[in-house]
Specification:
This protein is α/β, with parallel strands linked by helices and 299 residues long. It contains seven helices and eleven strands. It is 30% helix and 20% strand.
């Protein structure tokens, strides 16, 4: 479940119990920090938390301040400077070498319900939808990992015993669809323009060819991964309308996945989801060690 969903559910539960809560939001970062601007955390009336604004450095201090903020009903802006070489700065043992500003905002009654609605709208605008064409054993960890990341996953397969909700409890939708039938087009069961990414991994050439060639024309797709060797993908692309023979569109990733030495299905899933995430973020995958800029892009 996405962090925004967990925060929204926590606020909804607080509202149902007639409790208030404090929303902590990172509003500015200068230098190195674990989370970027926009990161959120909820502190409930009992001191429990949902979400995170750091790697654990700031949370205890924020919880300590939250009760007073909630009682006063007044927002507070807290300035954390972790650039000091003294590991005991603020008594928190921070060492991120950056400056972080966090707004603590008390939420109760109408303000609480307004924030719940705002988070729902924000989530809807930023939800990544992934289409997985194929429901084999190797698709299970892909769907699980993508769902853990907070993506909304739809699984489509032609095999009745494979396309089941029991096999993919983390998927938003699981659909049985036979590409060999006249009514077997993907567009007949889903809105393809709602997906930002798709993976073709059905292990059946006829079905994979139909899925890949239908997905080629979807402008919303920024990532279209194809499982299998490069030569197989070229064969699947043969005869695709409007495609120059031998050419591979830039948003098609084949062979799929980052080169991390993956062998097991779980490792391969990690390589696939990581490559997809990088493509959606417009990043060229590389180690942060080799990146000259800050960890988080300025937002």
């Amino acid at each position: 479940m996405h962090e925004l969903d967990r925060i929204r559910l926590a606020l909804t539960d607080a509202a149902g119990r007639g409790e208030g809560a404090v929303l902590a939001t990172v509003v500015a970062v200068d230098g190195s920090a674990y989370r970027g601007a926009g990161a959120r955390m909820v502190v409930r009336a009992d001191g429990s938390t949902v979400g995170a604004v750091s790697g654990g450095c700031l949370e205890a201090d924020i919880v300590a301040r939250a009760a007073a903020v909630l009682a006063s009903g007044t927002s507070e802006l807290v300035h954390y400077d972790t650039r000091s070489s003294d590991d005991g700065v603020f008594g928190l043992g921070m060492g991120c070498q950056g400056v972080v500003d966090v707004r603590l905002e008390p939420l109760a009654d109408d303000a609480l319900r307004t924030e719940i609605d705002r988070l729902a709208e924000l989530r809807a605008r930023n939800a990544v939808r992934l289409l997985v064409c194929g429901a084999g054993a190797d698709a299970i960890p892909v769907v699980r990992l993508a769902a853990m990341t907070g993506w909304l996953v739809t699984v489509i397969d032609h095999r009745p015993s494979f396309a089941t909700a029991e096999r993919f409890p983390d998927a938003e939708r699981v659909i049985r669809l036979d590409a060999s039938r006249p009514d077997g087009a993907l567009a007949s069961v889903v809105r393809l323009d709602e997906f930002a990414a798709a993976v073709v991994m059905g292990h059946a050439a006829a079905h994979d060819r139909a899925r890949l060639q239908e997905l080629l024309g979807i402008s919303s797709l920024r990532y279209l991964g194809v499982l299998g060797p490069r030569r197989r993908t070229m064969e699947l692309l043969e005869g695709a309308p409007g495609l120059v023979p031998g050419a591979v569109p830039p948003h098609v990733y084949a062979p799929i996945g980052l080169d991390i030495g993956a062998e097991t299905p779980e490792e391969i899933a990690l390589a696939i989801v990581s490559e997809c995430a990088a493509a959606l973020a417009g990043r060229t995958p590389r180690s942060l060690r080799d990146s000259p800029g800050p960890i988080h892009s300025r937002r």
